[in-house]
Design a protein that fits this description.
globular, membrane, Sterol_Desaturase_Related, single chain, mainly alpha, 2 domains, transmembrane, 14 helices, (thale cress) hypothetical protein, oxidoreductase activity
Amino acid sequence: MASFVESGWQVLSLSFSLFLHHNLIYLILLPIPSFSGDFLRLDDLSSLYCDTCVFFFFSNPPVWIHRIQFGFVSLQYCFRSEFDYATSYVGILTVFPVSVCLLELKWYLVTHFSDFQLACIGSFLLHESVFFLSGLPFIFLERQGFLSKYKIQTKNNTPAAQGKCITRLLLYHFSVNLPLMLASYPVFRAMGMRSSFPLPSWKEVSAQILFYFIIEDFVFYWGHRILHSKWLYKNVHSVHHEYATPFGLTSEYAHPAEILFLGFATIVGPALTGPHLITLWLWMVLRVLETVEAHCGYHFPWSLSNFLPLYGGADFHDYHHRLLYTKSGNYSSTFVYMDWIFGTDKGYRRLKTLKENGDMKQT
């Protein structure tokens, strides 16, 4: 019974999503003039956003739902003359057997866009969705006082300070992050990035993601440590440290120069390996979730740092924010071993020992 209810819910979810995709969103955007040229039309933009969300956020339904999903996909393209990849329900079933992996089906939903549109615009839309959906709840927690016993610092940010953060983030994301993604595309293409079938194996994806985390943490550590030199801190990095009590969204609140400088740490791994786009997207999602968690200001019983010895987490990075820039340490983004090796976490470890021994109350 539970399986039947779950299957029914998944069918309804898929139906509703595709209804929005081809009715509500297109009705809203239809009166708006499209961009000229082949860059990206506004109706394509809505399609790309919905297809990306369908790919990432739908759970795996039973095999029999595949036929229903194939039907929707087929109809989707039958009534859109600009795409002729699928022309009939029979055709779509010929291309994709019923037993096809649902991951491949979901990926097929987005592959009617060009590599440029997917890698740049699709990546930007995915980043914005994951970032704000994971970061905004911490503003709600802070304002309402929910789960306050897990809050690392007792001080709260004012609504005005939170609003300032969101406004600046939107400005920087569109004026810095998006152009950076556009500029990075030729590099990724030159290194072999692709979005075509076949999809990479999970072993390949896992190995690449692990490599990205390790190299990002290494590059970030040294870049972050340089930013704490006197001149760079005063003129660049101090913007990020305006929030001594961080919350999720402050993870990307920074000077434009810092966004470019430390953004290199995030893209250097993929640039070296030329991954499949699905690997790049997964890396982006995990990296965003990690940095939001590190800045969330809460240390929960289920926080990863309680289970992974080398993972820093919120408590590790919160210490960095609440101390003077010359004494903070804890420069790594994800792991703790770089700070341990170079002795930049001594103050944090000493404070943690005092707290564990009951000699000091949490600030």
